[in-house]
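step: validate -> pass
step: tokenize input -> pass
step: predict -> running
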Amino acid sequence: METVTNILEVKDLSVSYTVANVVTHVLKKVNLIVPRGKSIGLVGESGCGKTTTMRAILGVLPSNANIENGEIIFNGSDILKMSSNELQEFRQTGAGMIFQDPSSALNPVFSIKEQFLTSIRYAHKEKNYSSKELYEKAIEALKAVSLADPDRIMNSFPFQLSGGMRQRVCIAMTLAGEKELLLADEPGTALDVTIQDQILRLIKDLVDSHELSVIMVTHSLGVIRQVTSEVNVMYAGSIVEGGDTVKVFEQPKHPYTMALMDCLPKLTGTSIAEGIPGRIPDYDNPPVGCRFFPRCIYALDQCRNEIPGQTLIENGHWVACFAAAEGKVWRN
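step: predict -> pass
step: emit ->
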């Protein structure tokens, strides 16, 4: 594949599901860019479409999903137009996923060695590695994720390892497969806070040392600030603000981003964090215009019927909001 600056570009992606003859319009014109060798964040409330976006990128949406519009460009090729063989190659060496529960990604009845070697053999089947070479690659990958005594790990079963060790094994499998893009879906949620911090630091180090490209999916603003260089804020299936993580966090422009920031507890203890009034719209009958319109205190008349496009606030920071584009949104 041709080398391009952005390893992944999602353009105007819209996805719906059909459940009991009811169509739910989950993603609406999602745009997402992943620069090569960078870690970007996708943050938003539970149910806003983050996992659906990741499944669409991997091409593993359920059978009741319908891609209504859009493109997913990986290294210059549209994943949505790939043949079965091309899609298989993409999953072999292109992208790998780390799930929030490592137990669900590892088969409990097979040893780590059996699963690890099968994974590497699948990713490098054209190279015809010997069993010894595959084992050496696995040991090297386990060492890269700071797992002590990798030989013991290889001969263990998943239930014999802690949650943090299982998560590191999953990351090591991705490294050994020499994937270019890592999709991390809430990778620390099932772990205690100290192990979660270690996993996040590990992913950040791998981005720096292996030039790995990462999409970090989470609902935690703290995780995004710690790990990513760029952030995309998603609300109800649409990305409403994005850009440099520091700029977006220090000067949020979209009313939803501001509301998320205001929900964070203050260290000063001078006030109690409050939730965002209202609720996420029903996906079977979402608003015609901006999906945040029913909850927005800055909403304009055009927000009801028109979908706002991206407005560049400054280099490396954009927002999809009519009111913000007109300078009518401000922080208290």
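step: describe -> Residues 55 and 62 are 9 Å apart (CA to CA).
step: cleanup -> pass
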